[in-house]
Input
Amino acid sequence: MKVDGKAMRTIWVEPDNWSVGVIDQTALPHRFVTARLASLAEAAHAISAMVIRGAPLIGATAAYGVCLALREDPSDESLDRAYATLLATRPTAINLKWALDEMTAAVRNRPRAERAAAAYRRAAEISEEDVAINAAIGRNGLPLIAAIAARKKAGERVNVLTHCNAGWLATVDIGTATAPIYLAHDNGIPIHVFADETRPRNQGASLTAWELGRHGVPHTLIADNTGGHLMQHGLVDLVIVGADRVAMNGDVCNKIGTYLKALAARDNSVPFYVALPSPTIDFTVADGVAEIPIEERGAAEVATMTGRASDGRIETVRIAPDGCAVVNYAFDITPARLVTGLITERGVIGASRAALAGAFPERAGTAE
Ligand code: MRU
Output
């Protein structure tokens, strides 16, 4: 995607050919700054502190974290330490474990002297694969939007509601939920996005609204509680969200609040699609509601708000009484029965074991 006219990805290898650059997403939308990751510890911190976030980008960053570790020390112990350190950063997005397994397979049986170079090659491939997968998700999701556009009167827009940020900032490029949206916009289909603010961290307000604006996609920021009202009044044509983990039965784990949007969509007969790359499918989890671990984050994310004050300073203010009990679940599970379809790199498929195994037999087979 372009930032101020310059094509950018969310992660790259710096000109020194070893350290890793990322966009610091904690500074958006107020400041565009990049960060340099030069060690395993810095990569792990970038993930856990959400300098970078979004399931596919977490995976790519973890892959480069392994590179940084092996560059310093290519031993088995170093590889095991990198795996364990990075895996512990965030528990829910399965792309993290997928990427770590890919990296381990790429280096484990090599002589130590070759491991770092092999790791950088595999990390680069993981990044390129993410971009190619997201482009395919865009192509596969486009007809869903085009079909709605074809039913509209002249001048009417297709209204898409999305939750959190499953845009290019959550991936290496293009995004998952945003891939069909960007492609529709680029193809001249009149499209408009309702972006849920996505409390408590407000990824919709600070990231989705920012990146849609950078690409020129018309959008409107809404409070999280607004989606049901919009759907009830026919103002949403379809919902497209991303995913952090999809279980074998088609249950979808995504940012907290996704489930409520799916319920509202079902009650109002609004199609509810989930866009995901295959590394987000966890073929070892049979039942998403029962088995997917839900990250719990700190109370401060709920009890405070951070933003730009009128004098330009970034400030964090408390919005709850001192000492108030807080719980902060970061994700929820949308049961498969509420999902109209999964937009994958291999087509739009049902949210079911049969459809997932049929589309990805090589991965489903190895997990059983
Ligand atoms: O906590 P985050 O910001 O990492 O959560 C991100 C999401 O929930 C996204 O919707 C999901 O990772 C899909 S990313 C293409």
Notes: The radius of gyration is 20 Å. Residues 79 and 104 are 8 Å apart (CA to CA).
